[in-house]
């Protein structure tokens, strides 16, 4: 069972055959689990969701399906809002994790990505650090497993990121899937060797662009990605408002699933 926002929905890993036209690391993990063991998979994550929305819109539905294993990552969209009260939000987050723990689910929580090298999002780094410490405290309190995105420095490579600069691309999602399977293996939840079943395409060479080409890319990015994001913030809308969960009920997911 996967809960959360665009990170877990799979935004950036485009696949027109999938619901919402996205694959993503959670699908990739599920493909391995379903192929290698007696697993089924559900994914309730929808892009743009904040912590409160994940709690209100996904928690009860997930608990009703009695998951053996649940992954939760929410908070990135809250961190981007300076006025959001992280302490209050993380109290709700803890309550969500506690309900899964009381139900007997194994729980995987994610720390937030370190934006130290991001010109656009580096100012959110202190809030992400606070969020991460809260996640670690919650994990300690309820026996959850940590998938430590903050410490996985290879994700700082821009070749793992989509053109919107906010989401991982297919290479990033493939690497994340391998990382999550490795965490599950070291915790004895799955076979330790299953992470090797994620195909890792070779990274492309770094692009060498002229100053003019870089400027054109910056202007194109601002028009196609930054401006719509700012407009949604100003109008109180979300990119996920018209979308529903990719897999609201359990399925046995295969590479050819759609």
3D structure, described in words:
It is an enzyme of class 3 (hydrolase). This protein has eight helices and six strands. It has helices at 6-9, 25-36, 51-64, 76-79, 86-102, 125-142, 170-186, 211-235; strands spanning 2-4, 41-43, 69-73, 106-110, 145-147, 247-251. Helix 2 (25-36) crosses helix 7. A four-stranded parallel sheet has the order 1-3-4-5, with helices on both faces. It has a two-stranded antiparallel ribbon with strand order 2-6.
Topology:
Blueprint: E1 2-4, H1 6-9, H2 25-36, E2 41-43, H3 51-64, E3 69-73, H4 76-79, H5 86-102, E4 106-110, H6 125-142, E5 145-147, H7 170-186, H8 211-235, E6 247-251
Parallel strand pairs: 1-3, 3-4, 4-5
Antiparallel strand pairs: 2-6
GO molecular function, one term: hydrolase activity
Domain SGNH hydrolase-type esterase: 2-175
Pfam family, one: Lipase_GDSL_2
């Amino acid at each position: 069972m996967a809960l959360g926002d665009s990170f877990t929905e799979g935004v950036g890993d485009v696949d027109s055959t999938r619901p919402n036209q996205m694959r993503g690391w959670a699908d990739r993990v599920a493909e391995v689990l379903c192929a290698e063991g007696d697993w089924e998979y559900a994914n309730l994550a929808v892009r743009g969701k904040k912590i409160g929305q994940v709690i209100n819109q996904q928690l009860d539905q997930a608990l009703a399906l009695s998951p053996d294993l649940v992954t939760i990552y929410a908070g990135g969209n809250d961190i981007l809002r300076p006025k959001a009260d992280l302490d209050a939000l993380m109290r709700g987050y803890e309550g969500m994790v506690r309900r899964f723990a009381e139900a007997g689910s194994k729980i995987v929580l994610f720390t937030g990505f370190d934006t130290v090298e991001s010109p656009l999002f580096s100012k959110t780094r202190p809030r992400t650090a606070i969020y991460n410490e809260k996640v670690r405290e919650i994990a300690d309190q309820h026996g959850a497993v940590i998938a430590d995105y903050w410490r996985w420095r290879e994700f700082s490579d821009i070749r793992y990121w989509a053109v919107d600069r906010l989401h991982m691309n297919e290479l990033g999602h493939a690497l994340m899937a391998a990382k999550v399977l490795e965490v599950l293996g070291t915790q004895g939840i799955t076979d330790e060797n299953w992470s090797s079943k994620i195909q890792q395409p070779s990274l492309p060479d770094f692009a060498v662009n002229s100053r003019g080409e870089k400027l054109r890319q910056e202007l194109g990015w601002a028009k196609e990605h930054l401006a719509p994001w700012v407009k949604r913030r100003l109008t109180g809308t979300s990119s996920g408002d018209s979308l529903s969960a990719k897999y609201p009920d359990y399925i046995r997911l295969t590479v050819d699933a759609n």
